[in-house]
Structure to design on (851 residues):
C-alpha cells in the first residue's frame, strides 16, 4: 500500500470517528449472540459492590438491574436522562429529605424468587454499612456515596424510601450508576464472586475462568419483548493487538470501553472502513497527586509552580496524540455536565501561554527558595504500566524546564494503592475513573478532608463548605455555579493538578444496533435493548 | 535399571521438596499480596478490612506455619483454594494442562521435524549454497522471539485474509480441523525458533560423526549414501539432539506465556503469570510444582531413551 493511500485512509478514518448517537435503525429483531471484548478475567467475579473496575462491571451488568438507570440510547448521562429500571416511579419529598421508589411487580430473580423492597433495603444497608445491615461486603469502595442516608424504610413489599440526613439531589445519579445494582437478600454477597443471580435481562450460563463469560436470554425478564439477543459472550483476550485483530476479523462484534486509543482505531478504520467508531469521554482523568502534608508541596506556591510548569495542551498532544481533552476536576463540557470549559480554564495555572506559565513557575520557585543553585528535587511515582509511565515521563520533562529535577519511580500494581494510601510519595502520576458524572461522587471522594482516596490530603475549609453547599443545593443552576467555583479554587490551589480527560474510541460493527456508548465507562452495559441487524 | 529409576525418582522427590520451599518463600518475598490486589481493584485501602481478609485467608500466620499447612494439605490430596476465584486450585489448573502439553508437543514435533532434516541436509551439503541458505534460515529462527513471530502471524493473517485462528479454545471433539489450526499456528511460531537450535546442533554433531573412521568404512563397504547418513551417522549423532529436544519440551511447559497470550490459548503458562500478578499463592504453587514435575520426568525420560537409542549405554543393574 502506498504511503499516500495509507495517509488517505487514516484521514478518512479520523473523519469517520463521530460522536456517539443513536443511529437510525429499522425495527429490532430477536436472536443472535453478541460477542464482546474483555481485557482481563473478572477480578471479583460478578461482585460489583466489591470492586471499582470496569473489568467487573462491563461483563456483570447484564445480570443485574438498578432501581433507576440512564437511558440506554442517550450518550450523555444527566439527571434528566435517568429512567426507571426496577423502580416504576420515584418521588422526592418537597424538602428533598426522602426519596421514595415504587417497584415494579412480578419481577423475579434468576432463581425464581420474587423481588421485593426488602432486597433493595438489604443491598443499600449493606453498602452503607448500616448497623441493621444483615450482611457485609468484604471490600466496600462506595460506602461514602450513601453517607447522607439516615435510614431505608420498607412500608410495603413494593415501596422503599431512602430517608436522608440532609437534601442530596445526587443520590439519584449514584443509584443510576452501573456500580449500584440491587442484590438479592437471600444470597450471600460472597457468592457473587463466583456466580450471579440477578433480575437482569441475561442469566449467567458459564464463566470459564480466564476464557469467557456466557449469558443466555432471561425468558422471564420483566420488560416485555426484551432482551432481543439470545445471549452474550464476553471473550477474555489479554493481548490488545489480538483483541483488535479479533474484532477486525469478525470474531467479536464490539470492543470494550476505555480500550480504543486514537492510533488503534485509525488503523482499524483503515483496515475495516465499515467499522463504526464513537468518540466518548469515559470519565477517566490523568492527575498529579501532590503530597500536601510534606514539604515541599505543603507550600501552595510550590504546588502552583508545579501546576504552572506542565503545559496541559502539549500533554494532550504528546501523550494522547490528541485523544484527550483538557478539563478541571469534573468532566468538561459538552460531554460532561459539571466541568469547566476550555475557555473557563484560561488563566488558571497550566492553561495559559506555556512560556508565560513557565516563567511564573520559575518566579514562584525562586520566591520559595529554589533555583539553579538549589534546585527542587522530587520523585515522581507511578504504576509500572506504559500508560502511566508515558504520563510521568512527560511531566518530568516539563518540570525540568522550570528547574525542577524529577526522577521516575515505577511501582508495581500490587504496591500502588498501599503506597498512595500510606502517602509514601511526593508526586504521583495517577488515573482516576469516575463512576458517574456527578459532583458528590467525585468531590467527596477525591477532595474531602480525611477521605481515604484524597491521596494528597489536600484539605481546605472553604472548599469543604462549598462542597457541602453544592451537595444540598436543589436548584441545578445555583449548584452548577458553586461547582465551578470549587473547581477554580482546586486548580488555583493545585490540589490535584488535572492533566486531561481521556477520550475512548469505541469500535463496533454496524450490524450491532442500540449499543450506544455513553460518556462514561461504567453505566451502559446492560445490553437490554441491543440487537443484531444481520 | 529399576534401581536407577528408583534412585532418580528419589532425587526427584528431594528436588520437588526443595522447589516447594523455594517457590513458597520467593512468592512471599515478592512485595504485596492478594489482599493488596483486591483493594487495588476497589481503588482504596482500609487497614482494618485488610486484616480481616488476611486472617480469613490464613495469611496472618507465620510463613513456616503456612508452609507446613500447605504441605500437609498436599499430602492429603488437597491442593488448596484459589484466593482470586474462591475455587479449588486443582479445578482451575486441571483444564489448562492438556492445552499447554498439546501446544508444547506440537511445537516440539514441528521443531524436530523441521530441525533434524535441515540439520542433516546442511551437514551433508556442508558449505554449499543450500547449507548457507539453511543456516541463514536457522539463524533467523534463533533471532526472532516466538511471541513476535506469533504477533506477526496474527497481524498478517488479519491484514491479508481478514481471518485469525479462533480466540476461544476449540476442543478437538467439537471441531478437530479448527482445533488443529488453532494449535498449528502457535506451534509453528514456537517450533520454528526451537528448530533452529536443533538444526544447528544436528549439523555440528553430524559433521563430527561424518569424519569418523566407521563412516568411511561403511562407505568403503559399498553402503549407499542415505543409508550411511541415516542409519550409521545420525544414529550416533542424535543423542545430544534428543537431550535438547527434551529440554526444549520441558522448557515450553512453563515458557509459552507470551505465545499463549498472543494466540489467546487457555494454557498453564498464561494462567501462571496472571496468578503471579494476583499473588494467588495456591494456584502459583501448584502450577510451579506441576512444571517442576514435568521437567524432572522429561529429563528422566530422555536419560532412559539414551539406553534405547545407544545399546552401549547401560544403567546400573
Amino acid at each position: 500500500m502506498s504511503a499516500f493511500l495509507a495517509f488517505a485512509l487514516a484521514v478518512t478514518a479520523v473523519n469517520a470517528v463521530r460522536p456517539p448517537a443513536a443511529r437510525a435503525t429499522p425495527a429490532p429483531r430477536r436472536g443472535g449472540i453478541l460477542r464482546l471484548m474483555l481485557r482481563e478475567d473478572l477480578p471479583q467475579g460478578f461482585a460489583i459492590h466489591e470492586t471499582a473496575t470496569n473489568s467487573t462491571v462491563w461483563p456483570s451488568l447484564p445480570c443485574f438491574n438498578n432501581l433507576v438507570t440512564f437511558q440506554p440510547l442517550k450518550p450523555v448521562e444527566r439527571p434528566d436522562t435517568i429512567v426507571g429500571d426496577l423502580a416504576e416511579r420515584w418521588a422526592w419529598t418537597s424538602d428533598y429529605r426522602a426519596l421514595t421508589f415504587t417497584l415494579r411487580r412480578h419481577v423475579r430473580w434468576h432463581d425464581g424468587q420474587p423481588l421485593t423492597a426488602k432486597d433493595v433495603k438489604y443491598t443499600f444497608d449493606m453498602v452503607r454499612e448500616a448497623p441493621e445491615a444483615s450482611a457485609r461486603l468484604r471490600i466496600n469502595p462506595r460506602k461514602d456515596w450513601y453517607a447522607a442516608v439516615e435510614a431505608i424504610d420498607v412500608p410495603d413489599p413494593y415501596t422503599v424510601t431512602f430517608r436522608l440526613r440532609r437534601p442530596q439531589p445526587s443520590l439519584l445519579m449514584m443509584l443510576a450508576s452501573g456500580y449500584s445494582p440491587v442484590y438479592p437478600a437471600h444470597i450471600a454477597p460472597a457468592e457473587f464472586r463466583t456466580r450471579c443471580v440477578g433480575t437482569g435481562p441475561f442469566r449467567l450460563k458459564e464463566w470459564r475462568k480466564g476464557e469467557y463469560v456466557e449469558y443466555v436470554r432471561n425468558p422471564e425478564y420483566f420488560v416485555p419483548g426484551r432482551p432481543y439477543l439470545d445471549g452474550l459472550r464476553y471473550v477474555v483476550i489479554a493481548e490488545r493487538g489480538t483483541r483488535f485483530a479479533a474484532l477486525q476479523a469478525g470474531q467479536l462484534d464490539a470492543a470494550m470501553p476505555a480500550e480504543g486509543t486514537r492510533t488503534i482505531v485509525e488503523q482499524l478504520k483503515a483496515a475495516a472502513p465499515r467499522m463504526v467508531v464513537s468518540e466518548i469521554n469515559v470519565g477517566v482523568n490523568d492527575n498529579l497527586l501532590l503530597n500536601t502534608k510534606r514539604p515541599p508541596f505543603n507550600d501552595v506556591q510550590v504546588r502552583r509552580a508545579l501546576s504552572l510548569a506542565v503545559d496541559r495542551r502539549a500533554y494532550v498532544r504528546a501523550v494522547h496524540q490528541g485523544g484527550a481533552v483538557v478539563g478541571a476536576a469534573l468532566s468538561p463540557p459538552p460531554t460532561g455536565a459539571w466541568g469547566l470549559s476550555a475557555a473557563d480554564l484560561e488563566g488558571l495555572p497550566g492553561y495559559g501561554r506555556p512560556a508565560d506559565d513557565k516563567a511564573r513557575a520559575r518566579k514562584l520557585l525562586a520566591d520559595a527558595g529554589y533555583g539553579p543553585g538549589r534546585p527542587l528535587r522530587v520523585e515522581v511515582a507511578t504504576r509500572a504500566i506504559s500508560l502511566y509511565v508515558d504520563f510521568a515521563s512527560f511531566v518530568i520533562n516539563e518540570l525540568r524546564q522550570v528547574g525542577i529535577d524529577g526522577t521516575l519511580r515505577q511501582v508495581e500494581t500490587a504496591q500502588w494503592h498501599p503506597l498512595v494510601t500510606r502517602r509514601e510519595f511526593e508526586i504521583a502520576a495517577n488515573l482516576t475513573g469516575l463512576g458517574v458524572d456527578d459532583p458528590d461522587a467525585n468531590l467527596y471522594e477525591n477532595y474531602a478532608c480525611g477521605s481515604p482516596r484524597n491521596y494528597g490530603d489536600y484539605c481546605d475549609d472553604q472548599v469543604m463548605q462549598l462542597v457541602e453547599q453544592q451537595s444540598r443545593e436543589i436548584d441545578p443552576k445555583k449548584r452548577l455555579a458553586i461547582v465551578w467555583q470549587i473547581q477554580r479554587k482546586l486548580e488555583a490551589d493545585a490540589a490535584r493538578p488535572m492533566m486531561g480527560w481521556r477520550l475512548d474510541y469505541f469500535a463496533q460493527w454496524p450490524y450491532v444496533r442500540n449499543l450506544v456508548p455513553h460518556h462514561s465507562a461504567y453505566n451502559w452495559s446492560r445490553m437490554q435493548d441491543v440487537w443484531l441487524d444481520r | 535399571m529399576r534401581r536407577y529409576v528408583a534412585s532418580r525418582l528419589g532425587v526427584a522427590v528431594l528436588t520437588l521438596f526443595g522447589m516447594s520451599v523455594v517457590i513458597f518463600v520467593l512468592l512471599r518475598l515478592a512485595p504485596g499480596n492478594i489482599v493488596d490486589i483486591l483493594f487495588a481493584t476497589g481503588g482504596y485501602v482500609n487497614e482494618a478490612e485488610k486484616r480481616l481478609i488476611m486472617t480469613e485467608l490464613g495469611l496472618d500466620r507465620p510463613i513456616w506455619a503456612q508452609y507446613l499447612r500447605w504441605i500437609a494439605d498436599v499430602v492429603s490430596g488437597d491442593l488448596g483454594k484459589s484466593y482470586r476465584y474462591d475455587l479449588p486450585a486443582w479445578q482451575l489448573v486441571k483444564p489448562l494442562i492438556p492445552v499447554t502439553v498439546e501446544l508444547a508437543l506440537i511445537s516440539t514435533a514441528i521443531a524436530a521435524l523441521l530441525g533434524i532434516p535441515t540439520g542433516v541436509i546442511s551437514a551433508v551439503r556442508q558449505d554449499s549454497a543450500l547449507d548457507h541458505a539453511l543456516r541463514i534460515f536457522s539463524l533467523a529462527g534463533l533471532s526472532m522471539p516466538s511471541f513476535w513471530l506469533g504477533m506477526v502471524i496474527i497481524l498478517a493473517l488479519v491484514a491479508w485474509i481478514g481471518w485469525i485462528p479462533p480466540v476461544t479454545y476449540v476442543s478437538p471433539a467439537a471441531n478437530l480441523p479448527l482445533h488443529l489450526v488453532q494449535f498449528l499456528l502457535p506451534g509453528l511460531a514456537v517450533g520454528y525458533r526451537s528448530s533452529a537450535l536443533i538444526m544447528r546442533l544436528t549439523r555440528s554433531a553430524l559433521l563430527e560423526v561424518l569424519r569418523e573412521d566407521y563412516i568411511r568404512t561403511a562407505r568403503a563397504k559399498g553402503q549407499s549414501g542415505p543409508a550411511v547418513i541415516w542409519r550409521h551417522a545420525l544414529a550416533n549423532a542424535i543423542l545430544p539432539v534428543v537431550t535438547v529436544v527434551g529440554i526444549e519440551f520441558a522448557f515450553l511447559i512453563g515458557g509459552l506465556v507470551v505465545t499463549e497470550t498472543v494466540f489467546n490459548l487457555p494454557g498453564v503458562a498464561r494462567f501462571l503469570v496472571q496468578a503471579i500478578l494476583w499473588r494467588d499463592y495456591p494456584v502459583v504453587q501448584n502450577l510451579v510444582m506441576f512444571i517442576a514435575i514435568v521437567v524432572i520426568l522429561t529429563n528422566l525420560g530422555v536419560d532412559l531413551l539414551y539406553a534405547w537409542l545407544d545399546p552401549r549405554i547401560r544403567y546400573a543393574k
About this structure: The mean pLDDT of chain B is 91. The longest helix of chain B spans residues 176-210. The CA atoms of residues 72 and 78 of chain B lie 8 Å apart.
